[in-house]
């Protein structure tokens, strides 16, 4: 989702229960699913464990995968914090009153190999354009650098941060250990992407109508990047 900025800090959570579960994973647990790495060149240095995920990037009726049962108790503080932040905002309260509560449409644990990178890219498709992309560093090191819209930061363990996934973003892991983030996509029902709201005011977004805007086929000047 596009917004005025590159990073937006939501809060912090106690990461220790989730860290314990992640550190208990075997090497083979990270290698069971490689579709994401084979399909997207930018993610070739990563390994992932899907918790709530669909490779067709559907925007509703997301699939809860078996691994979610293992990790869900440790995820609850972060899930609660994120939902409260979006649903409790003035716009969120308005949308929830009209359309119902929001939901998580995707959740994954993503490991970036030591010395690896996630190449510069933008997130393209209807669901990604209409979701709030949130990162929670679970295991990291000071040499992991996250760049969004030309701004580079190190995200600390336990920080819950929304990134502007409509801008070009990349990650470098210059450390000697793998970096693990919990990555979540949260949806506020009825929320339009910025260009959709501007081009079709008062009309609900849908994949066909918003094709030009969600694939960035037209320039978006809704939230200009800082010079």
User: In what range is the share of β-strand residues?
Assistant: 25-35%
Main beta sheet: strand number and arrangement? 6 strands, antiparallel
Mean pLDDT: 94
What string gives the helices and strands in order? EHHEHHEEHEEEEEEHH
Count all strands and give the number.
10
Distance between the termini: 21 Å
Class by SSE composition: alpha+beta
Radius of gyration: 17 Å
Q: Given the C-alpha coordinates, what overall shape results?
A: globular
Q: What share of the residues lie within helices?
A: 25-40%
> Segments where pLDDT lies below 50 for 5+ residues?
none
The number of helical runs is 7
Strand order, largest beta sheet: 1-8-5-10-3-2
Explained architecture:
With 227 residues, the chain is α+β, with helices and mostly antiparallel strands. 26% of the residues lie in helices and 28% in strands. It has seven helices and ten strands. It has helices at residues 16-23, 35-39, 67-88, 90-99, 126-129, 194-199, 211-214, and strands at 7-12, 46-52, 103-112, 117-121, 132-139, 144-148, 151-153, 159-163, 169-173, 179-187. The strands form two sheets. A six-stranded antiparallel beta sheet has the order 1-8-5-10-3-2. Strands 4-9-6-7 form a four-stranded antiparallel beta sheet, with no helix packed on it. It is globular. The two termini are 21 Å apart.
């Amino acid at each position: 989702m596009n917004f005025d900025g590159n990073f937006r800090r939501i809060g912090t959570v106690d990461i220790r229960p989730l860290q314990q579960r992640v550190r208990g994973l075997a090497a083979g647990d990270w290698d069971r699913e490689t579709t994401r790495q084979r399909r997207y060149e930018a993610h070739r240095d990563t390994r992932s464990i899907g918790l709530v995920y669909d490779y067709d990037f559907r925007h509703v009726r997301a699939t809860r995968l078996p691994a979610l049962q293992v990790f869900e108790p440790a995820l609850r503080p972060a899930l609660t914090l994120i939902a409260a932040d979006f649903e409790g905002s003035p716009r969120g309260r308005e949308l929830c009153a009209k359309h119902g509560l929001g939901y998580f449409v995707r959740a994954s644990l993503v490991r970036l190999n030591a010395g690896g990178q996630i190449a510069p890219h933008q997130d393209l498709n209807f669901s990604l354009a209409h979701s709030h992309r949130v990162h929670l560093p679970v295991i990291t090191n000071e040499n992991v650098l996250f760049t969004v819209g030309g701004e580079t930061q190190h995200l600390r363990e336990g920080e819950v941060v929304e990134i502007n996934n409509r801008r070009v973003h990349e990650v470098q892991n210059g450390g000697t250990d793998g970096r693990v983030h919990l990555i979540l996509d949260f949806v506020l029902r009825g929320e339009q992407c910025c260009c959709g709201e501007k081009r079709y005011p008062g009309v609900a977004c849908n994949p066909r109508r918003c094709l030009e805007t969600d694939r960035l086929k037209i320039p978006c000047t809704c939230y200009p990047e800082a010079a």
